[in-house]
Amino acid sequence: MNRINQLFNIKYPIIQGGMIWHSGWRLASAVSNAGGLGLIGAGSMYPDILRENIQKCKKATQRPFGVNIPMLYPDLDEIINIILEEKVEIVFTSAGNPKTYTSSLQSEGIKVAHVVSSLKFAQKSEQAGVDAVVAEGFEAGGHNGREETTTLSLIPSVRKGIQIPLIAAGGIALGSQMKAAMLLGADGVQIGSRFAATHEASSHPNFKQKIIELQEGDTQVTLKELAPVRLVKNKFFQDLEDAYNQGRNPEVLRAILGRARAKRGMFEGDLHEGELEIGQASALIDSILSVDEVFQQLIREFNSALLPSLE
What we know:
Elements: H1 3-8, E1 14-16, H2 25-33, E2 38-41, H3 47-60, E3 65-70, H4 76-85, E4 90-94, H5 102-106, E5 111-116, H6 119-128, E6 132-136, E7 142-143, H7 151-161, E8 166-169, H8 175-183, E9 188-191, H9 193-196, H10 205-213, E10 219-222, E11 229-232, H11 235-245, H12 250-257, H13 261-267, H14 291-304
Parallel strand pairs: 1-9, 2-3, 3-4, 4-5, 5-6, 6-8, 8-9
Antiparallel strand pairs: 7-11, 10-11
Helix pairs in contact: 2-3, 3-4, 8-14, 11-12
């Protein structure tokens, strides 16, 4: 049993990314029931909706699950209070300073992992006392690192620089990629896009269908002036590109972004005017599956990914 299995008390070292508008209680509980670690994505939930999802997840699984908290969102103190009141056992934080809540969460017996995109921030997270680090490469969907370091380069670099358990993320959708990440030094993997294209994901069917149609090069990171994010190249993305061609004015970009664009795209299914966040691994996904089918596929591919000796 490796360190991630032990840390989170799970069968397989597979963590489901806490993606906004995808990761409700149905997805999180299904992943946990399959032997991984399901995460509820708090980033797209008002506090009362988060509480409801936690309570429903408790009823749907007897296995460990967690909550992902992007720290750039409002209502953080209220969200933390809900997590404490509902006795959530595992929290993944991202997009902020890991020192902010780690010690207070751990004092209540909660395991804490923090998502980073560089060795420097992995080391800062270790110094902050987190239980594990998620090192996420530039291939990932959604909010992304400014460093543009790919998973293939990031994982061995972070592995050399920290002692605590390491979870690889970004561009991982196949069992062979999972094995490659672990050969590079990861103790486990976090998978987002593959779980976004499942029946249990809470996103709109239009977006799930779009995911399986995407090809190589159909996503790109943009909005570096605000917060880098990888998006599908749809009309909304092109509107951003047109604004860039007229000058990199953050206020103009904010005006185009507006409010609730991500909800409009991923949850309500507007494939033209909505913000569609997904990773490069979408090009490897060609079917909408159940979570159980995804696990069967990952494990089968992982176990068959053998390389001949170079000698």
